[in-house]
Amino acid sequence: MSVLSQGLQPRSLTPAALWRRRRTRRYLLQAVFLLAVGLVVAYLIAQALDLELDFDFLSGPGGFSISHQWLTDYVATDSRLAAYTTGIVNTIRLVLIGIVLTTVIGVLAGIARLSSNWLLSRLASLYVETIRNTPLLVQITFWYIAVFLELPEIVENRNLFGALYFSNRALALPFVDSDGAFGIWLIFLFVGAVSAWWARARLLRGEEATGRTLHATPVALLLFAVIGAVGFLATGFPLAADVPHTSVTPFGIRTIDGGLQVTPEFAAILVGLVLYTGAFIAEIVRGSIQALPRGQSEAAAAIGLSAYQRMILIILPQALRIMIPPLTNQYLNLTKNSSLAVAIAFPELVFVGTTIINNIGHAVPVFILIFATYLALSLVVSVVMNALNRRVQLVGR
Amino acid sequence: MQSTHIQASRDAGHRLRFWARDNLFSSRPNTTLTVATIATLGLVAYFLVQQDFFDLDFSVVEVNRRLLFVGRYPQSEEWRLWPPLWFAFILGGFSFGLWARLSRRDVLWLGAAIVFILALLAHGENGGLFGGAAAAAALAYGMGRWVRRDHRSRSRAAKLAALGWAVLIPFTVLIIVAFGGVKPALWGGLMLNVMLATIGIAVGLPLGILLALARASSLPALKGVATAIIEITRGGPLIAWLFIARFVLPEFLPDALNTDVIVNALVIVSLFTGAYVAEIVRGGLQSIPPGQIEAAHAVGLGTVNTTVFIVLPQALRAVIPALVSQIISLWKDTTLFSILNFTDALGGAQAAIAQADFIGRQKEVLLFIALAFWSVAFAMSRLSQRLERALGIGVR
Amino acid sequence: MAAALFGNANAIEFIPASASDRFELLASGEIDVLIRTATWTSSRDIDLNSQFVATTFYDGQGIIVRSDSPFQSVTDLQGATICVTGGTTTEINLQTRLSELGVDHTALSFEGDPESLAAFTAGRCDAWTADKGNLAGQRANFPAGEDGPEAVRILPETLSKEPLGPVVRDGDTEWFDIVQWVVFGTMIADELDVTSTNVTSMAANPPNQDIANLLGASFDGAPVLAFGTSLGLNATFMQDVIFQVGNYDQIYSRTIGQIGLPRAGTLNDIWTNGGLIYAPPIK
């Protein structure tokens, strides 16, 4: 409190000193920056005002038809919004099935790369190194025009074991066909699952209390099977095998009827996405397993677990903890990459969106819609994976 | 003499048998796996042969090699491509000699690639020009090896090489475009893919670093805007962004900037790459212990100096593998330009497939394109692994 | 066009456009005139910031099928899969016409003609629909490996009227006039039998006033009606155009005639022969 502070105080009020103050500089810098950003945004908005930005066009009739539909029944006279929704559903179908299959392939390939079996590990690394380093679009194009379109026509179709059909109109596998009572049987199955889960929990508590083995899991499975079987009989066999077969329409077109049918377009984009993403997942799985201390596997071997048990009970559950964040990223990549289907006539959401733009313009609102949809899809994937992550991290900690 | 031969071959046989026992048939499950794998492979091979999958005829690639390499680029201006290519080859060879050593396997792979391209270019003078470039690169590699013996000349050569890399892209673009050259709209084939990827990363990398610094900044305005740019960009697929470059951007840009769809697309690709680079660099920034920054401040370095000389070098070094993956991913993603009807390598391939003479030859063209992209991507990933080991990333 | 503007038919840059992005290219100024198979429709004329100049070819949508298929008419296509290029009037027409006829079908929409062709030749589709002019061209070039043009045939019905012609951006009236009168000029030359071979001698010594007006020459010492100059071009621009690219008939036979679409007796014949090719007079 003396000469020094007295000397400083008046000076800090001069403009120069104010300018030198860190806080002032920070605010000024930000103000200038925001001004610049604001100008750019204002310019963009001014430009955008010339364009049609309303979404009214979505209620007009689409006019075009959509070749692939699943759970939707859009027809050309329906609104463009309905067409776009059909695109969203197609994307969701692709992403859902894709995520399940790619995880299976990726985990298998990742484990195979670490296998002590030379042939298997070499095969897995060949798969990973070729697929990962080749453009996905080239792969999808290859699957479509060099593989699935090159399959024989139905006229000369090849069927395997009398039940699998490979043709360039559709791939067909035997499936199950359900009748009206199927829903009731599903209720039986649900009841079975709940009671099995309850029984298992009780028996496990019993095991912990008494120390005796009560075969909790087998008993629970048996319970589930019994309730399921009873329901199956009670509802009068709601399921029947549905084997695909060919037939000719009165107009001379040969078709495949029945079974589970997959079009070449869907097959190509699905196979492309699954194999591509699977190669990346394989690397994630390998890295996560390698990140575990060797002692884990050795200890498990020491207490007499088989290689399979070691993997399922000891290694994978722990590796899962490391795996989930990068895995989430791959699922998000798969979601976004599904848009490459535009190249091969599979009507997912970008395909439908650009068709609408080509018919009547309104590019800006359509792209806003497309980005909002991807944002929503990514959010769903992230939320589910984060929930899984929290669960996995809590277990055993 | 005779007996040692027999002994040796018997040894080899023994070794093979031991190796097979250890690696293929060590246990019952292992044997089952081996047998099952072989059976599956056999089944797949049988199916492919039955479908005439191996009935390949690569003449479609040879006839269309111009289309695949340069697209619709005018033939009369082809000479413009060679100086940059020579420059890049010599620079590449020299830098490699300066900083690394070719292993026998490298030589084998590179040799195979060069012979393959030479065979493709056998007709006409391009073969000679390409072979010359390869020879010059080999010479430059030798020079690089020679220069590195001496410490002083080595550091001078390193500066020279760095300068060379810095001017490579501007030089290339200048040579191709200037003095009545070829507009980007006419670039095509693999050349277009290479240009897109290099320009995309050359612009995207600095942009990404700036975005990452902005996002890590303590200034809320800067942080907010950077975060918004990064997240919105990463929110949608690249193909949607490219459609925006084609459909929407021309309506927004002032006429002076609105020259060429491909330039718009390049801006978009750079922004897209920048957003992904930013997230990678952010990871690197977070890995720097706060002690580093405190120490830098303690010795009197300002915020800017600390960032440029202390934080960034360490952060970038830590994320080199991820950055290389991003470059590889960009390299592969350049094929998306074919959806916008540019004649890039994949677009050229589709054009070749549509030719009446080559109906049914789509496999060959696509396999060739896949090979071209694969070899570059694979080489980059291997180079990155080597760099990682040399720099000791992840070891400390 | 380039012949008219710069006196050289090659002074032009062709930018390939696909069906899906062509109007955007035009609207964004990337291209000045769109000469692709663009159909003149009310919505395109009014909504898409574009203006159709004139009809240069009266086309109609048709359907091509394999020769060995049982389809004889459009109504036979019950249950068929039909390839079509997406985002086009072709796609919407197909939908409208076939549902009017009660023909239940699956339309598979592709990015462009090459993809549709690939899918059709591979047998993914029973039929492929596009403008007949286009289909005739595809048929003429049908790969020999697939048994050539005889392997496919075009069904007799025409599903739509497709007046094709050049398109320019809205608002640029001078440019519109230039493009329009170059097109009309080739039609008038056809009507007056001015061809690339006789244009030079006709310009030197025009046989009548109409030809003199067209070529920017003087007839019987009368003053020259230089309608080219009022367009901002050379008075003799039509001489360059006809000399370098020919009149409507020559252009037709050099391009569309090559793919097996005859002109005589069709809508595309000159009006004096009962066709629809009819240009306003130069006066």
Structure description:
The complex is a heterotrimer of chains A (about 400), B (about 400) and C (about 280). Chain A is α+β, with helices and mostly antiparallel strands and about 400 residues long. Chain A has helices at about 5-10, 15-20, 20-50, 80-115, 120-130, 135-150, 180-210, 215-235, 265-290, 295-300, 305-335, 350-360, 365-395, and strands at about 160, 165, 170-175, 175-180, 240, 245-250, 255, 260. In chain A, the strands form 3 sheets. A 4-stranded antiparallel beta sheet of chain A has the order 1-2-3-8. In chain A, strand 1 (about 160) and strand 2 (about 165) form a beta hairpin. Chain B is about 75% helix and about 0% strand. In chain B, helix 11 (about 240-245) runs antiparallel to helix 13 (about 260-285). The mean pLDDT of chain B is about 85. In chain C, strand 5, helix 4 and strand 6 (about 105-110) form a beta-alpha-beta unit. Chain C has helices at about 1-5, 20-25, 40-45, 90-100, 115-120, 130-140, 175-190, 200-205, 210-215, 225-230, 235-245, 250-255; strands at about 35, 50, 55-60, 60-65, 80-85, 105-110, 125-130, 150-155, 160-165, 165-170. By secondary structure, chain C is an alpha+beta fold. The radius of gyration of chain C is 21 Å and the shape is elongated. The relative contact order of chain C is 0.15. Chain C starts with a helix and ends in a 29-residue tail after the last helix. The interface between A and B is large, with 53 and 50 residues.
